[in-house]
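Q: Protein A?
A:
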Amino acid sequence: MNDPVNDSVNAELQELAESVFADARGAGTGFDAELWKTLDDTGLARLTLPGDAGGSEGTFSDAAVVLAAAGAHAARVPLVETDLLAGWLLHSAGIAVPAGPLTAVAGELEVAGTGVRGELRRVPWARAAAGVVVLTAGHVVLLGPERLTVTDGANLAEEPRDTAVVQGEVAPTAVAALPGGAAEEFRLRAAFGRAQLLAGAARGALAASVRYAGERVQFGRPIGRFQAVQQQLALAAAEVASASAAASAAAAAVTAGGFTAAASRFAVAAAKARTGEAAGAVARIAHQVHGAIGFTREHDLRLTTTRLWAWRDEDGSDAEWNAEIGAAALAAGPDGLWPMVTGSP
């Protein structure tokens, strides 16, 4: 049954998010400080965190709306890392959440009292973060930029994926015991956030392709009027619809039951697998429609397609999550399979 109040709130939130990200869209690389300030001012930067952690107390369905818009417009900000991962992990561990953009990573650190030493690889946005939160064996550690030696790195979309080396002392208030179940929830939260971004990026690539097909004239008419192009765009649209449905189902599941519920784990796995599969198909069709121009650095199509290629392998590939779905289906058995798939009792 539809909830008209919630539908109205989500529509207003989507309108706000689309406006914010569309205004900031650009072909630059690295952290977009101006966009981050806007997100901070509007309460979108820490949407799901509680008020005492500087958050807006939104739902995961709200987060899905914002992240999809961020993906569609190739936003250069660490939204998933700040809100869903670092902020949540710090608050859960009883560590004060600092202001500014944050990032989080599961990694191996040697922790002895307040002494910390180790190397962290492929840390998202480390060079721009006001704090790097590390989930390590038995501990949650907050590292300020002054404690880190950062070597720049990047994924295929030129988003920061840096190497950070730490050796020294941190404040006693920056280290806490790892809460029970936090490691598994961290993994699911990361996959959930990445799935929402993927669904948005697929939508952005499709929109760009439809627009280009209507503008590019060949043999006296727009290429969008040719049946072969229409068929390819229809296939891409089906992939986008499927990815969006899976991502929305995951958002509804975790909003209703949190990340610890079996139904939520299954929904997140399905969302990450399905959006990952859609990423390859949509990117391929988008470049086929655009032809050679779509592969040039000057064209904006690369902003979404390179993210589709990069994100599908981050936070677990579609093959990894499909294997988990298969294991869950076998464990459920003949009588439990249908309730698991449909989310019914």
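Q: Protein B?
A:
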Amino acid sequence: MTRSTDWRYVICAAGLLACLPLAAQSPQEQDMTQIHITMSGSPGAEFSAHWRITHEGETTEHVEESGTVPAEYTFTGTELEGTVKLLSDDERLEVDIQKGSNRSSSSTQGAGGTLTVSIR
């Protein structure tokens, strides 16, 4: 009998972020390690973001120096902390983060508006 391992690739605008075997995780555990971020607001609004993702005791970082709305990111992890800064004048930025049944939403308006977000 052969055993196959389900490899999950997490991809965003910056490319491949993580490659983690999920064979040992139940569907419920997978839901609790998938962190989905949706960036919305004024179409074309520019932002920078710095994400710190902790998974199995290790922390990795993802930096987006010049993203634009709309954008979406998916990370595998147990915790996420992030700082998002709106770079555009007279624009609105909304950040929605979901992990399992936990959800965090924040928004800011005007250049320099900075959000600090986290989810566990």
